[in-house]
Each structure stands twice: as C-alpha cells, then as structure tokens.
Amino acid sequence: MNPLLPGDPTVAGRLEQLHADLLQHRDYDLGFPGATDLPDMSALAPFERLLLNNVGHPFAPGGAYRMHTKHLEYEVVGFLADLFDAPLDNRHGYVTTGSTESTHWALWQARRQLAAPTVYCSSAAHYSVAKAAELLRMRVRVIPTDARGEIRYDLLHAAVVRDKRHRRGTGVIVVASVGTTMTEAVDDVARIGLALDTAGITLEQRWVHADAALAGVPLGLDDPIGRPAFTFTDGAHSIAISGHKFLATPFPCGVVVALADRHTDRGDITYTAAPDSTITGSRSGHAPLWLWYLLRYWGRPGLRTRAESARNLARYLEQQLRGIGWPAWRAQSRAFTVVFPRPPQPLLERWPLATDELGNAHAVMMPGVPRERVDRFVTDLRDALSAASGLGLISDALAS
C-alpha cells in the first residue's frame, strides 16, 4: 500500500482518472477565461501543509492569530493600487474569493455611506451584480448597451434623472463592466462620471465600482493615453480583478481595491484582536501567497508580454474565422475575447463555448492557450459548417 494515500484502495485509481479527464477537457478549453501558463511554483510547496488564515483585513496589525500572510497580501493590494492609480495615502482592499465577493463588498461599502442608493449596471453586467444587490436589498436599474456590449451613457443619464425626479433615494451606485462577460466590452468610467455630473449627482452621492475581473490588469498595464478609462483617476471608487483569469492562479480568487476614505471599518473584533471589514472573516492565506509570488515572478514587463501575446492570438483567431467565412469580431482592440455566431451543436458538444440569448458564442484567448489548439478549433468549425451546410442550418444560424 502506498503510504502517501488513504486506506481506501480506490483513491489512486479515481485520482488518476480524474486527472486524465481534466487534461482531456483542457485540450478543448477556449470558451471560458482562465490563464494556464503557470510557472514552476515549487518554491511554495513548503506552505501547502500550513493552515494560513488571513482573518481581518491587511491594512491593520495582524491581530492575535499569527499564521497568516497579510503582510504579503498588503503588497498584492499595493501592486494593484499602483497599477490603477490609487493615491498612496488613500487606498484599501483585500484578497477575496473572486470578483463576486469583491463586487458584493463594494456595494456593501457604498450602501453604508449613501442614502437609499440605487444600483445601476448594464444589461451585459455579470449576473453577480444583481445577486449582490438582492442580498443587500437594493434597487437595481438595468441599462441597455450598444451592439458591442458597452453601456448606453445617455440611457444611464436618463434613468438617474428619472429616479431623482421621483425621489427614489439620493445615492447612486454604478457598476462599470470593465470587460463584459460575453464580449469584453468596457464601460468608460469617465463617461459614467460625466453622465452623473449632468444628472446633478454630487461626488458625495455616488460610488462607481469597476468590475474588471478579466480586463483590469491587462488594461492597467497599457498606456493611459488611448486605453479605456476605468482607474481611480478616471473616477472609480473601487476596482475588482480576478486572480484565476489573467494572473493564472489554479484556484478562484480575486482582489478588491478601494479608496480608503470611502471605506467604513467595523473596528477591532475582540476574539481575533484584528479589525475586519471583509465579507468572509476567515480568508485564505494561500491565495495572497500565490498572487504575491506570481506578481513578483512576472513583474510588470512579464505581465505586459503575456497580455500582448494573448491579444495577438485573439487577432489571429479573428482572422482565421473570417478566413473560413465565419463572421468574427472583438468589442475593442485590446480584447482577448473573439465573438462569433453560435456554431452548430455538434461542435459545441466537442468544444464547450459560452453562448448568449442573441445567438452569439465566444472564445477567450488567455495566456497559455497554444496556437495549435486554436488551429484545431478552426478546423473543427470548418468541418462542422461544411456538414451543416448540406442540412440548410448555416443560413438559419447566421440569421438568428
């Protein structure tokens, strides 16, 4: 018996089969964002058998419990705060379970400061926005988008003015999608601010949260001149990113960064002797450790190279799809996401792609996706289209 395995004799076989199945699924994974170019992480192996609990937030002394990585978490938040132009003396944040928690936290903080706020988001916003608003018992106004998925600023302005006229509270929370789930369209935070200005919403009456789960870090690495406006200098009060999308952690996690002067602390918790304004309380100390290591490993130059390689692959896929006669487009020139009409069902059974109610599908060219996989996908799509054309299905798919 292998002393490294439990006494159950089926464990080894089940793990081997699971691993084989997952490797097979990975070979056909293009439809959902998750970087896979993870470097050698053996330096962190000694920490795998340690319980690391980052109870409380990292912008305060560690508290009574010492098995934590909050000093490294502080550096992770600082790296992203620098990237997103947060003032050195006005920044806060922590590592979360993912952007859903980050958005929930941002809306919670905004709700504690604003009078009877209403949440405004686009129809392309992540479904977690509505879920967080429901948990916090806040009204939600869904604003239509343009054809590519960007919020309609004129309709946002009209909705805010209408609610203000009907005295539906004075607080306004806008969730800007910085890379929508389906098309990776980006809501411009500066234009959102202008819409609120002209609607008569003061700076004290608003909170703009940028849900930048996928696109935040890649866009933050770009020259501010020419990139979409979404950082703190553009008017954001909080920004969320995912760790498992662009930063390649092999488990879901995220980071939320916010302006400290808009953050409300709950004070020290007697049991832990640590201030805690987080959602979850007990938090993974391993996620900040991995994020810290990856940010140190790549640095800004390495992250920038990975982003550009992913964009080049997205351009390549877009060209290849058009080359076989299948329409394809990207919502903005920096997007990793390529959108195209929903392929025939036999292809979707082989290549699981995200689809929407408008008849679109997409593929996301994340760091780590090999060009060979893209070529296989295009070949399989070409063959599927050829087979479907004889059944009269292609024109129907394009028409829908």
UniProtKB/TrEMBL annotation:
Matches recorded under SUPFAM superfamilies: PLP-dependent transferases
Modified-residue entries (N6-(pyridoxal phosphate)lysine), positions: 245
UniProt keyword list: Decarboxylase, Lyase, Pyridoxal phosphate
Any one of the GO BP annotations: carboxylic acid metabolic process
An MF annotation (GO) of this entry: pyridoxal phosphate binding
Gene3D superfamilies: Type I PLP-dependent aspartate aminotransferase-like (Major domain) (3.40.640.10)
Family note: Belongs to the group II decarboxylase family.
This protein's name: Histidine decarboxylase
